[in-house]
Design a protein that fits this description.
With 425 residues, this protein is mostly helical. It has one domain. Helix content is 83%, strand content 0%. The chain is built from 14 helices and no strands.
């Protein structure tokens, strides 16, 4: 056991537990909001509201890219005794995030009329409202990355709870007042602003004007590696909802959106495991330590989360949704369980790719991206029913996990070689 792993284990376990609990609370709150929307809104309106969430999750790829880049380099710079360099990196990344947020907001708001036609929404205003929150959403991701890299998991956990509380409170209040999909989208944007404020207080970074300048060439190169994984996540996590929205009737798309919520809950609960493992692997790998036990433990945790969610969906999913949302949702136990099981396979594959990525390699990420593209092509060909969409995704995820496991068994982690990508010059 390395000195680093011994000294950080108590705080890692405690912080990781706090983060996992916060993720459960946050996902539960988001799920309650979606159940409320499903109960109050018509299936067509619910489909529009869920589209805004899907677009937000798609844009999350940019936020997660910034967060993971910050987490890895902050962890390595701090490990080498250069916290000022970490703060300077955070300042630079916040500038990038602000620019990307403004551009993304302009694309959403400026093209709102077009997006409304493409996705058959009742109004273009939700796209405008969502776009207004993008700068806040992307800037806060850098602060989350700093907390992740410095293993400040309680603060990171708090930011997720704040995001959920504001989203749930504003969303429920505005929809109850009659603002419908627009009100739900305002809740999303308000949660971005609140999270930005919370992270600004919790991250506690320095001014970032002193210290050695970060190696921005290495940072940009690593961002490209991260983008491969995140692009695969976007396609795998959201393509089915977009295909259903484009090819199903509004009511059928709304019912499928309810099923997809379960899968998203499984993935984001499992993501809490990857969030804890990622910076620890980066630090341990940088000091020459073995990281295999971290991957094994992470896979066990993700599998346990997925199994519990799948069993819960099978036993309770249909009756609970039928009671809360109405009889149209009452016979969904089987597809809910199948979707949760499929997403568990994807979450495990994602953890394996994230583990490798934290060490500066991304072969598994390319495999994940390739499988997500295969999934998308299959969905575009076979999309006649909910069952068909789920089966297609199951096939793609089984193939992905099989290839990744085979490759992992045939290779071993290479010894660490210091490079400019991770260590100061």
């Amino acid at each position: 056991m390395t000195k680093e792993s011994s000294s950080t284990r108590p705080s890692l376990v405690g912080g990781g537990t706090a983060l996992a609990v916060a993720m459960i609370v946050a996902n539960a709150g988001n799920y309650v909001l979606n159940l409320f929307l499903g109960r109050v809104l018509t299936p067509a309106e619910f489909s529009d509201a869920n589209l805004m969430v899907t677009l937000m999750l798609t844009i999350t790829s940019i936020a997660l890219c910034l967060q993971l880049v910050a987490a890895r380099f902050v962890g390595i710079y701090d490990e080498s005794g250069q916290p000022d360099r970490s703060d300077r990196l955070a300042r630079t990344l916040r500038g990038y995030a602000l620019g990307a947020g403004i551009l993304t907001g302009l694309v959403l708001a400026g093209g709102s009329a077009l997006w409304s036609q493409v996705f058959h929404t009742a109004s273009f205003w939700p796209f405008v409202i969502l776009g207004a929150g993008m700068p806040f959403y992307l800037v806060q991701s850098v602060g989350r990355g700093v907390m992740q890299g410095r293993l400040r998991f309680p603060g990171l956990a708090t930011s997720f709870v704040v995001e959920m509380v504001v989203r749930l409170g504003c969303g429920v209040a505005l929809v109850a007042l009659g603002f419908g999909v627009n009100g739900a989208t305002v809740g999303l944007t308000a949660s971005f602003v609140a999270t930005w404020l919370a992270v600004k207080l919790l991250a506690r970074t320095g001014p970032g004007r002193t210290g050695v300048a970060p190696d921005l060439v290495a940072v940009r190169g690593y961002a490209v590696l991260v983008s491969v994984l995140l692009l695969g996540q976007i396609i795998a996590n959201n393509s089915d909802v977009l295909v259903a929205k484009a090819f199903f009737s509004p009511d059928a798309a709304g019912i499928y959106a309810a099923i997809a919520l379960v899968g998203r809950a499984v993935f984001f609960l499992a993501w809490s495991v990857a969030t804890v493992v990622f910076p620890v692997v980066a630090r341990r790998h940088a000091s020459g330590g073995d990281t295999g036990s971290l991957l094994t433990g992470g896979i066990a945790a993700v599998a346990g989360i997925g199994a519990a969610c799948t069993l819960g969906a099978l036993l309770l999913g249909g009756p609970v949704l039928g009671f809360i949302l109405g009889p149209a949702y009452g016979d969904l136990a089987a597809p809910l369980a199948a979707y949760a099981g499929m997403t568990t396979l994807f979450a495990i594959a994602n953890l394996v790719a994230s583990h490798e990525l934290s060490q500066g390699r991304n072969t598994q990420s390319w495999l994940l991206l390739g499988a997500s593209l295969v999934q998308l092509m299959l969905l575009l060909v076979w999309h006649e029913s909910t069952a068909q969409l789920i089966i297609v995704q199951f096939v793609a995820m089984v193939l992905l996990l099989g290839v990744m496991v085979a490759r992992h068994l045939l290779t071993r982690s290479s010894p660490y070689i210091p490079t400019e990508e991770g260590l100061p010059r």
